[in-house]
Amino acid sequence: MRESIWPNFYIVGAVKSGTTSLYAYLRQHPQVFLPGRKEPHFFTQPRPAREQAHLIRYVADVEHYQHLYRGADAFPRVGDASPSYLWCPEAAQRIHQVAPDARIIVILRDPVERAYAQYLMDFTEGAIHLPFAQALRRDWERPDKGWGVSQLYVELGQYSEQIRRYQTLFGRDRVLVLLLEDLKKRPRTVLEAVAEFLEIDTGPIAGMDLDKAYNVHRSARGVWVRYLAGSRISRFIGDAILPRAWGKYIWQRWLLRDHGKPAMDEDARRFLQEIYAPEVTALEQLLERPLPELRSSWREAPRRSLHEAAVIQQGPSPS
């Protein structure tokens, strides 16, 4: 019987902080195996709510998870990139049980911008239809929380305790913390640091294509696209009937458009800043380094009330 293969490194998050780009870059390295399917979320073991079940994709059982790693035997580094693992309180322990010597990679961004980027993604994909300030407060105040249950807009940016959890289990020297800003500005330098952390050759990085940014913001071509994307029927067709590559092509080429990111509501910005101010300070103390990049969007602006927050306008539907 074939011996189980468990990843020996994990890109655990954070959500909307560059994990897709990092995953795509590392897949080009000849000593790294990352499955074609990003984000199996296996160690989170989601239990999505009924209204979100059709929006959440994950691998639920060991057999299917192991299937992702067919052919990984020959690679010194085998990875899993699932950004739910940073937030999930149980994921770190579950990973440690099967791979106690694993390397953990975390990539972070300004938590205020991270929350807004997640909201814009949810809005475009038809998972949320409220203005940001309303969606944010509703999610923050709801009693039921979880991956596929609530959006976790605030919780996914509370980095300090999440990183501490991994450092405690795996050791500080096995947890690498990166910043999205560095990946954008100096991708080769960041990839070289990752290669050294994973103890693989840095040479192949010189030949990698690191120019493309993945999973960047794009808008839906009209309100109808958002409702189509969020429907159970279209999700079923995209996941179960059409080849995944076709569904991705149709979504990216026909249903989305390049469009400037709308400005964040200032009431929502201040709400998040008040929550994250002590959080960023705690993280700086934990990592023993200043992190001005995590406050890059913190600026003063005229106060707006919640009822003044406008719904994001997607523009007219194409004729």
Would you give an account of this structure?
Helix 7 runs parallel beside helix 13. The N and C termini lie far apart (58 Å). This protein has 319 residues and is of the alpha/beta class. The longest helix has 22 residues. Helix 2 links the parallel strand 2 and strand 3. The strands form two sheets. The chain has a five-stranded parallel sheet with strand order 2-3-1-4-5, with helices on both faces. A two-stranded antiparallel ribbon has the order 6-7. Helix content is 41%, strand content 8%. The C terminus is likely disordered. It is globular.
How would you summarize what this structure contains?
This protein has 319 residues and is of the alpha/beta class.
Characteristic key phrases:
single chain; alpha/beta; five-stranded parallel sheet; 7 strands; globular
Total helix count?
13
Span between N and C termini? 58 Å
Residues in helix, %? 40-55%
Structural class: alpha/beta
The backbone outline, from C-alpha atoms, is globular
**Percentage of β-strand residues:** 5-15%
Main beta sheet:
5 strands, parallel
What is the succession of H and E elements? Answer: EHEHEHHEHHHEHHEHHHEH
- The whole-number mean of residue pLDDT values reads 84
Low-confidence stretches: 300-319
Question: How many strand units?
Answer: 7
What strand order characterises the main sheet? 2-3-1-4-5
Radius of gyration: 20 Å
Helix and strand arrangement:
Elements: E1 9-13, H1 19-26, E2 32-33, H2 62-67, E3 77-81, H3 84-87, H4 91-98, E4 103-108, H5 111-124, H6 132-141, H7 159-170, E5 175-179, H8 180-185, H9 187-198, E6 219-220, H10 223-230, H11 232-241, H12 244-255, E7 256-257, H13 266-287
